[in-house]
Amino acid sequence: MELFISIVNFVNRIMWDYVLLFALPAVGVIFTLMLGFPQIRRFPAALKQTFGRVFDKEENARRRAAGEISSFQALAVAIAAQVGTGNVAGVATAIISGGPGAIFWMWLAAFFGMGTIFSEAILAQIFRTKDEDGNLVGGPAYYISNGFKHKGLAKFLAAFFAIAITIALGFVGNMTQSNSIASSVNAAFGVPSIAVGIAVAILAALVFIGGISRIASFAEMVVPIMAAAYIGLAIVVMVKFNDQIIPTISLIFSEAFSTKAVAGGAAGTVMKQAMRYGVARGLFSNEAGMGSTPQAHATANVDHPAEQGLTAMVGVFIDTGLVCTATALVVILTGANEIPGLNGALVTQEAFSIAFGTFGRMALSVCLTFFAFTTVVGWYYFGETNVKYLFGDKGLLPYRAIVIIFIILGSLFTDIGLVWSIADMTNSIMVLPNLIGLLVLMKYVRNTSKDYDRCKELGEIKYDYKYE
Q1: Three-state DSSP class for 129?
Q2: Proportion of the chain in helix, strand, coil states, percent, rounded to 5
Q3: Residue 383's pLDDT is what?
Q4: Could you give the angle at which helices 325-334 and 245-256 cross, rounded to 10 degrees?
Q5: Do residues 158 and 389 make contact, with C-beta atoms less than 8 angstroms apart?
Q6: How many CA atoms, within 13 angstroms, populate the side-chain half-sphere of residue 435?
Q7: ∠ CA 323-366-352 to the nearest 5 degrees?
Q8: CA 12 to CA 422: how far, in whole Å?
Q9: Residue among 2, 39, 22, 30 at smallest CA distance from 283
């Protein structure tokens, strides 16, 4: 076990302190500049595209009859995966490990990540295909294998990504979700962790069996309610501690650029630690550049790939701009991050307990359970898409069984730090082939974005989905 922990820590140090700390923001900057700051210039259109037809009963009825997944449903599946323990436990972990300044770097990573995820969704739409049952599937494995000219390299990178995401999210990632649910419910209600793990596994399996249609319907129903309830509770906390809001914002910015040495004899500056954990937890939360959410965005039936790119940007804004920010402010305003001996979801739970007493602890546990459970469902689907790429439908039954086993095992972990470290390592490995794919295929993103502007000028949004 000591050797395994050493390997995990070594890989994380190399990947997060050197490689991805710079590669992820750099890719985001490249696409942001190439596309002319779509997260600013196109954001009003993104909101209209995302929410404009949510309440169109005729359109929704037509899609259900045709078995189609709407743009909003695809976003709901993506947000179901994005909004999870990263928003509750991950943000708290970032503050504990990197200080309040980590939140600034989380915001900055999300801003440029919106340019990255816009591009991921476009490529997922362009290079998507149909599985053995006629369902739309797509994602990095598909746009790498179909888009690269060098087929040998394409086959290797696509398979590498497919294996990595299945392990990172379907298996290890869902362990972190199960662990956070079990520890939170146990602390709030005294329910044994193993019982929680088994219950989560059974409920998740019932959703898995229904395929993307059931997953999308479940996400569309649950995600808006759970996000609104959580943000509502956070707003009440902000009102109660309103005199501390300005000092808290000031602290976040000052520590984000602090050159003071890290306390406790650790090497590095406060700013470096804030960057490292802000970017790492930001990736784990909003998943921009990770290559996960394109699996969901590929399934949407839209008139033009850029339309789903717009919707994908809204997902990052909701995840980091709203939910993660809500968690960060609640934790810092209440001072829960300064209480020794707490980490992960327990920090956020203590923050709500300080604000609301016993009710706060229970309310946060319920919110976290829904956050983590929807992430389990979303991450399962992302893994399923890549299992289909690797093995076809015959790989689904073994995959589902292994996911359920990992969900139960995750509930039994007592060392939350080790769980998150393993998650960091597996996430960092799956990012690399996706970033390579994005850079190699960036011409498709640029040309598709220009084509969308041309279509808008002509007054007819239409795209023929050809690779060239």
Answers
A1: strand
A2: 80, 0, 15
A3: 93
A4: 110
A5: yes
A6: 22
A7: 65
A8: 9
A9: 22
State pLDDT tens for residues 155-167: 999 999 999 999 9
What amino acid is encoded at 54 in this protein?
Answer: V
Taken in order 108, 32, 312, 144, the sign of the CA dihedral is: negative
Q: Are 354 and 334 in contact (CB under 8 A)?
A: yes
From CA 104, how far away is CA 253, in angstroms rounded? 6
Q: Is 408 in contact with 178 (CB distance < 8 Å)?
A: yes
Question: What sign has the CA pseudo-torsion 157, 20, 386, 143?
Answer: negative
What is this structure's pTM? 0.88
Could you tell me which residues are beta bridge partners of residue 69? 300
Tell me the Ramachandran region of residue 392: left when phi exceeds 0, alpha when psi lies from -120 to 50, beta otherwise. Answer: left
Residue 268 has φ and ψ, to the nearest 5°, of 110, 175
Distance between CA 331 and CA 352 in Å, rounded?
8
Strands (E), 102-203: 129-130, 136-137
Query: What pLDDT was estimated at residue 265?
Result: 47
pLDDT digits (tens, 9 = 90+) for 279-308: 777 776 788 888 989 999 998 888 899 999
